[in-house]
Amino acid sequence: MALTSLLHDSVPVYRRAQRAWVCSPFRVALLQAMQFQGIPLGKISGLAGVQAGYTQRPLPEMLADQELMWLIQVGLLRREVDGQGITDSYRLAPLGRQLLQDLEKGEIPEGIPASWIDHLQNLLTRWHLLP
User: Fold this and answer.
1) Does residue 31 sit in helix, strand or coil?
2) Model-level pTM greater than 0.85?
3) How far apart are CA 109 and CA 31, in angstroms?
4) Are 70 and 20 in contact (CB under 8 A)?
5) Among 90, 108, 119, which residue's Cα sits nearest to residue 5?
6) Considering just the CA atoms, what is the radius of gyration of the chain in Å?
7) What is the pLDDT of residues 40-86, one digit of tens each?
8) What pLDDT, in 10s, does the model give residues 88-113?
9) Is 40 exposed, middle or buried (0-12, 13-18, 19+ CB in 10 A)?
10) Residue 81 CA to chain centroid, in angstroms?
11) Residue ranges in 3-83 assigned as alpha helix (H)
């Protein structure tokens, strides 16, 4: 893990974000696409998300939105904004770019399922941080 390459983020923040990503239903292809453009929710949820390689299984739109909002809260993503306000598209935040870089370097193993401890810690953190 490239903890030494973190610029302004603390190690606990990065680890929380990394754990949130590993526990999420999304694949690296989603982060890769988000580094270049905003990806609308409709292309992430349902069969479209599976066909694009963004998810492993079809996600209902509400569940996909909840999971994306969690990734926003931990600092990996942000909502895209246009001239009229917030859109339904998501982009990488700087912390998300760091995570993607580490994933692409192989410093974070891809495809290894999160442990039950990871899921429990993620759930407890999510429960604690959500309003």
Assistant:
1) helix
2) no
3) 15
4) yes
5) 108
6) 14
7) 999 999 999 999 999 999 999 999 999 999 999 999 999 988 878 77
8) 899 999 999 999 999 998 877 666 67
9) middle
10) 18
11) 11-23, 28-34, 41-44, 46-51, 61-73
